[in-house]
Design brief:
Number of helices: 2
Structural class: mainly alpha
Distance between the termini: 164 Å
Helix content: over 70%
Largest sheet: none
């Protein structure tokens, strides 16, 4: 194989024309395509970072709302507990007051019944005493008469009841 300068010269010219042709036809569109791809990747990265920031903001907002909702729910539960305790206290106070009224009425009723019974007993004792006195006055009593008279009065008192 012989080496000729003429062929070498033609090969260099062909290679230069081919390289220029490639540069004009393919290199600029290839660079443009690579630049577009780089811009697309950069834009996608920016959009992803922006979406990440937005999702982080939404997550924080959600957590804040959940914390506020938990706090509000706790406040509602505490308020309901306080209201229930107040209602329980009020009901107990009303029940105590009612029980006191019932006890007072019962005591008053017992007192009145006792007074009525004592008055009735006094009337009966007075009646029996009058009966006994009238019999005593009708005649003079011996000790046997006295015992008999007491038995009669007691028997009559038993009949009155």
């Amino acid at each position: 194989m012989e080496f000729s300068i003429h062929e070498l010269l033609w090969a260099i010219i062909n290679f230069t024309i081919f390289a220029l042709l490639l540069r004009l036809v393919f290199w600029k569109p290839l660079l443009k395509l690579l630049d577009e791809r780089r811009e697309l990747i950069a834009r996608n990265i920016r959009e992803a970072e922006e979406a990440k920031r937005e999702s982080e903001r939404l997550r924080r907002e959600y957590e804040e709302r959940m914390a506020a909702a938990r706090e509000e729910a706790n406040e509602i539960v505490n308020k309901a507990n306080r209201a229930a305790e107040e209602a329980r206290t009020k009901i107990l106070e009303e029940a105590r007051a009612e029980a006191e009224k019932v006890m007072e009425r019962a005591e008053e009723s017992i007192r009145a019944e006792k007074e009525r019974a004592v008055a009735e007993l006094r009337r009966e004792v007075a009646g029996l005493a009058l009966m006994a006195a009238s019999r005593v006055l009708e005649r003079e009593l011996t000790s046997e008469d006295n015992e008999r008279l007491v038995r009669e009065v007691v028997e009559q008192a038993g009949d009155v009841q």
